[in-house]
Design a protein that fits this description.
Bound molecules: adenosine-5'-triphosphate
Keywords: ATP-binding, Nucleotide-binding, Transport
Family: Belongs to the ABC transporter superfamily.
Largest sheet: 6 strands, mixed
Strand order of the largest sheet: 6-7-8-3-9-10
Helix content: 25-40%
GO molecular function: ATP binding
Number of helices: 7
Protein name: ABC transporter ATP-binding protein
Pfam families: ABC_tran
């Protein structure tokens, strides 16, 4: 995808704070986190369990709102938007990949990738064509009509990644995208993910516990005392 130098910054978190009330008191998870993702940049988020990686991804993905600070998507302050506008950004501008694939079990691989496009107004024939091409990119030609239950773990995760890329989002957010796979499959699927993200010129933030995978990204950040710092 061609993005020009004048395009707005895909994703920016400014002074983002998030706290949770727990029985033990208030838990300050993010305390003024700052992060900028430029177009074409793939950032690894590597931090110990419980430090707030998923929380940060949920805020970046407009799934939750910060208690203070602001998330900017393509230069637009998300806090100023209503729920419909936030949902529209999530549907068209952001691709999500989780540790578990969350594919729709009753639908085939091709339908799982075509449906989010059709929800965005793409005609079925065009959505199917793109889904087919993505499946081929991920080595799944011939598996189009298989339901997720008939696919291996690696194949399921490839379909989930293809689904996240289907609408050509500006930003990809991933939480341990290959954390559920064996080492060899994880390595292969991860390489395919990076290639696809680079090919589309997207910005990506990918949480992983795996330092080998993190090294293959453009830079590594971590969370310390609720703030994003270089990893
Ligand atoms: N809705 C919530 N209510 C209360 N506490 C929460 C909530 N969501 C997250 N937390 C707490 O916030 C902290 C950060 O959670 P988060 O899931 O972001 O961590 P993480 O770094 O992604 O961990 P992991 O690597 O284990 O997935 C944890 O202590 C968690 O228990």
């Amino acid at each position: 995808m061609n993005r020009s130098a004048n395009d707005p910054v895909p994703l920016e978190l400014r002074a983002v704070t998030r706290r949770f009330k727990t029985e033990a008191g208030v838990l300050e998870v993010l305390t003024g986190a700052e992060l900028t993702l430029v177009a074409g940049e793939i950032v690894a988020l590597v931090a110990p369990s419980g430090t707030g990686k998923s929380t940060l991804l949920h805020l970046a993905g407009l799934l939750e709102k910060p208690d203070a600070g602001e998330v900017f998507f393509a230069g637009q302050a998300a806090g100023t938007l209503g729920d419909d506008a936030r949902t529209a950004i999530r549907r068209t501008g952001i691709g999500f990949v989780y540790q578990f694939h969350h594919l729709l079990p009753e639908f085939s691989a091709i339908e799982n990738i075509a449906l989010p496009q059709m929800a965005n107004g793409v005609a079925k024939a065009a959505a199917d064509t793109r889904a087919r091409a993505l499946l081929a990119d991920f080595g799944l030609a011939g598996r189009e009509d298989h339901r997720p239950g008939k696919l291996s773990g690696g194949e399921q995760q490839r379909v989930a990644i293809a689904r996240a890329l289907a609408n050509r989002p500006r930003v990809l957010l991933a939480d341990e995208p290959t954390g559920n796979l064996d080492v060899v499959t994880s390595d292969r699927v991860f390489a395919e993910l990076l290639e696809a993200v680079r090919g589309q010129g997207m910005a990506a933030l990918i949480a992983t516990h795996n330092p080998d995978l993190a090294r293959r990204m453009d830079r590594v950040v971590t969370l310390r005392d609720g703030k994003v710092v270089s990893g």
